[in-house]
Amino acid sequence: MTNPTEHALPANSMVESREGDFGCTVMDLRKLMELRSTDAIDQINAHYGGVMSLCNRLRTDPVEGLSGNPADLEKRKQVFGQNFIPPKKPKTFLELVWEALQDVTLIILEIAAIISLVLSFYRPPGEENKQCGLPVSSPEDEGEAEAGWIEGAAILFSVIIVVLVTAFNDWSKEKQFRGLQNRIEKEQKFSVIRNGHIIQLPVAEIVVGDIAQIKYGDLLPADGILIQGNDLKIDESSLTGESDHVRKSLERDPMLLSGTHVMEGSGRMVVTAVGINSQTGIIFTLLGANEGEEEEKKKKGKKQGVPENRNKAKTQDGVALEIQPLNSQEGIDNEEKEKKAAKLPKKEKSVLQGKLTRLAVQIGKAGLIMSAITVLILILYFVIDNFVIHRRPWLSECTPIYIQYFVKFFIIGITVLVVAVPEGLPLAVTISLAYSVKKMMKDNNLVRHLDACETMGNATAICSDKTGTLTMNRMTVVQAYIGDTHYHQIPSPDALVPKVLDLIVNGISINSAYTSKILPPEKEGGLPRQVGNKTECALLGFVTDLKQDYHAVRNEVPEEKLYKVYTFNSVRKSMSTVIEKPSGGYRMYSKGASEIILRKCNRILDKKGDVMPFKNKDRDEMVRTVIEPMASEGLRTICIAYRDFSDGEPPWDNENEILTELTCVAVVGIEDPVRPEVPEAIAKCKRAGITVRMVTGDNINTARAIATKCGIVTPGDDFLCLEGKEFNRLIRNEKGEVEQEKLDKIWPKLRVLARSSPTDKHTLVKGIIDSTVGEQRQVVAVTGDGTNDGPALKKADVGFAMGIAGTDVAKEASDIILTDDNFTSIVKAVMWGRNVYDSISKFLQFQLTVNVVAVIVAFTGACITQDSPLKAVQMLWVNLIMDTFASLALATEPPTESLLKRRPYGRNKPLISRTMMKNILGHAVYQLSVIFFLIFAGEKFFDIDSGRKAPLHSPPSQHYTIIFNTFVLMQLFNEINSRKIHGERNVFAGIFRNLIFCSVVLGTFISQILIVEFGGKPFSCTKLTLSQWFWCLFIGIGELLWGQVISTIPTQSLKFLKEAGHGTTKEEITKDAEGLDEIDHAEMELRRGQILWFRGLNRIQTQIDVINTFQTGASFKGVLKRQTMGQHLDVKHVPSSSYVTVAPVTSPPTTSVPAAVSSPTLGNQSGQSIP
């Protein structure tokens, strides 16, 4: 596998001297990258004379890379383009305004306002006609009648303000989101070789001709051709829809495509296409061209999840490797969705959204009914009063006047509706989330999906990795077992036999990724920097501690000379590298988890470096005396071994045969200290009612020791620590299927899952989420850093990826990226999440008090006095403008530590608790009493003219101005009451920490003074005297005192109070709908019916087949085929509580058939016997 570098070496100098054209054009390379496997190899060989010649043409050196000369890099960018795909154009402000105008309530308001405007300019001839039942207008009323247009205009004006606020909010959210995306993109760096040095380069800086280092977990940033690879496997599903991993090698298929994930192995590639010329870029350009279609696709895309698309792609295209991504429409859909993933809701509606939607719908319906009744009563009253009691005839010249009256009634009805609908609610949610997300950035949480922020506040369980999250991820070897001796400190090199020392140094230096290395410290006296895999860095540090130089070994055996590499992956839990020995034959160095490697050893080196047999009893002895003591101190144990092959070439692809008969050289204990701040953070989680579980690939003793240090397990607790194997044995039935009932017995007590595979992690997360054991469904957060953590991160309610140690795949699958990889940041995320939830509850408490009071006042006022005491414009000021600012004030309350002293709310806990309902109704009673007193007795109290039953265009009265002013001031002081929702007495606590709140309250108060004093006709206001102002203010401050009275009433005694805004009751239906944007319950019921039918049919067929098989002893293939199909169906839609566990039968027929036959309810765990 060595490279003929001598042709390519002059490449750098050639670039300098000759800035001429490259040996191929953009189009040539684009065409080349569209080919796959053998076609591509034939084309490379025929047209370019092999990969090395292609490097020559691109003026690059396969070993040294580009020179990094700025002029050359600039030229490459001009010729081949930049590695940047221009994002889709954001919506313009006007488009967002248009979208905001689509709101139904606003449309109704606009229509009402326009009708009102038109009619106010229309002067009917019968104006003076007494017979129309109108009072004869006095001369000064004439001027007022001229101003009839103001009401309509003012409604329109407030609608415009609301639309602009909403549009601006959407626009800033979009801008913020793009900023976030850019930040994520800027942070993404890739290893590139320039001038012989490996450097981390921002993805956008990569140019054609660069030599890129690729390794397990990378997301490829550009298209390229493999120059050298070790055991490389790529997941190309994002482009082809084919989920099988594709093996890449120089001989079979060297084509690497941007946007695909490296699942195994490592290697180097020469970059051949970047930006819009790469395969992903081409797809994006196509998407850009079909803007209209894309909108359609988006709508469809919301309805069908990505997995269905992938399956379609599989069945349509059939052959995985020959697919041209350009022609695969499904691939395009997929790719678009992958990239836009952050914009589309990832799972079912978030907990909060679900509750809010239900609440808004309930309130909306109530408002609609109230407004309809109001309009009906007003019209009936008018008609009966005029045509029945006064027996007036309907005159044609009076018709326009009557219509004007009806329009006025209609406007009053609309006012009631507007007041009932909490317009400020969506705004409050958005502001609260946007504010939190911005602040969370400072707390090292980079939020990719907005709803993850508030879901985190409901978290009941966190499944955390150990390495790097709970520990410092700064590994050092502290103990070693070499040649029958257990060294509790690093031995001196003289204590070791030269042969053994040589094996240790070579075994570590060669059998580690060459990207792992130890660099000198950044600061004087600091610790050396560890770059790459931390475990490998610890081993390299061990080599340095033994006064040896790993660089020298690597220079002697460069990466090109490695004959074969079995890279580390989660299944192997080991890594092996094969080199050719100078004397002929091969030597393989292996390292990995000590239990796993020792099982494969049959020899061991003694004190003198001689090979001794290593039997099972020796292994057990070693585990007992060496490995367990190390593990119980929290050390991770790694075994180093080797094997020589002398006769001929062994079958390298048969891994089981190769990785046996090893000779053990040493076992080392690696320490990874617990982060000092973690025990405190875990204690906070426990206080907050959150269970922390550790899921790690480490040995169980190590895991238990670390869990005890962190405080995840405390002596005397009733808890379980399990290994992956034991965990699977306990939760699976004899057919190897996971049984939810068995899992439900395990997870509540499970605290540590050691030696776990990514599948175990996924199984555990899915099991906890699907469980119905507790009173409510668990909300699970998961941390992950590896490529293999992707499924668990996606499945979890909130997935946290590690910003430093995390692979691109993990980040892609996550909701929140921890920029400092620290567990304490997760606790901060919980705090912010709870804060969002509380902020919205605070706003609801405030908003609903306003709504209840305003609706009742408008309704009764209209029915009794034929006119709403609060005019349409005044209502809009209270409901739209004031509430918008109130949402800003209450949604930006900073979080406090006290949030972590209560248990999580959970999914089914209503948004409006009993205490909140007590506050809402209590304050409503106070406000209604005051307002009705003012309406019916206010004129006597203040000694002014009554404003009741005023004619159509009469001027504003002081009476109704006082009512409006008092109403607003009561809301203003109630806003301060709303800062607390759990019945706390001190509503001023921490008020000065929130400057926004203070400025909003002050600003609203000043605006109110201006409206009353100078608002005039548009706001139906007239000036008030100072004493009237003081009375209004006094009544407003009474709100604060009344709040103290309410908080003394114990909530428990008010059993009649109902809660509102419950979570989704049809829990299982929601689970079926994972991946859908909006959930249509009727459709879900229908779909469940179909599935039950399929399952019934499937079960009957399976049982018939089982009986037939039992009778004839025939093959099981037919049964399997149908069972896997049934399984596929189930996985998609069926709620877990009634899983049909029909899975491939792995045990031999003789054992499984009698079991199947004897059970009349095969696989049905819901307890319903199916005949």
Describe it:
Helix content is 51%, strand content 12%. It is α+β, with helices and mostly antiparallel strands and 1171 residues long. Among the domains are: 26-88 and 207-273, Calcium-transporting ATPase, cytoplasmic transduction domain A, CATH 2.70.150.10; 355-437 and 835-1053, Up-down Bundle (Calcium-transporting ATPase, transmembrane domain); 458-470 and 676-821, HAD superfamily/HAD-like (Rossmann fold), CATH 3.40.50; 476-671, Calcium-transporting ATPase, cytoplasmic domain N. Strands 10, 11, 14, 15, 16, 17, 18, 19 and 20 form a 9-stranded mixed sheet that branches. It has an 8-stranded mixed sheet with strand order 8-26-25-24-9-21-23-22, sandwiched between helices. Strands 1, 2, 3, 4, 5, 6 and 7 form a 7-stranded antiparallel sheet that branches. Helix 16 runs parallel beside helix 33 (823-865), helix 34 packs antiparallel against helix 37 and helix 36 runs antiparallel to helix 37 (995-1014). The longest helix is centred in the last third of the chain and has 43 residues, at 823-865. Residues 1-20, 135-145, 289-348, 1065-1086 and 1113-1171 have low confidence and may be disordered.
Alpha-carbon distance between the termini? Answer: 63 Å
Can you name the CATH architecture of one domain?
Answer: Up-down Bundle
For CATH, the homologous superfamily of one domain is named as: Calcium-transporting ATPase, transmembrane domain
Structural class by secondary-structure content: alpha+beta
Principal-axis shape equals elongated
Poorly predicted sequence stretches spanning 5 or more consecutive residues: 1-20, 135-145, 289-348, 1065-1086, 1113-1171
Could you report the average pLDDT, rounded to the nearest whole number?
75
Which CATH C-level class of one domain is it? Mainly Alpha
| CA-based gyration radius | 36 Å
**What helical percentage do the residues reach?**
40-55%
Query: Might you state the CATH topology name of one domain?
Result: Calcium-transporting ATPase, transmembrane domain
Q: What portion of residues belong to β-strands? A: 5-15%
- Could you give a short account of the major beta sheet? 9 strands, mixed
Number of strands: 26
GO cellular component, one term: sperm flagellum
EC number: 7.2.2.10
GO molecular function: ATP binding; ATP hydrolysis activity; calmodulin binding; metal ion binding; P-type calcium transporter activity; PDZ domain binding
Protein name: Calcium-transporting ATPase
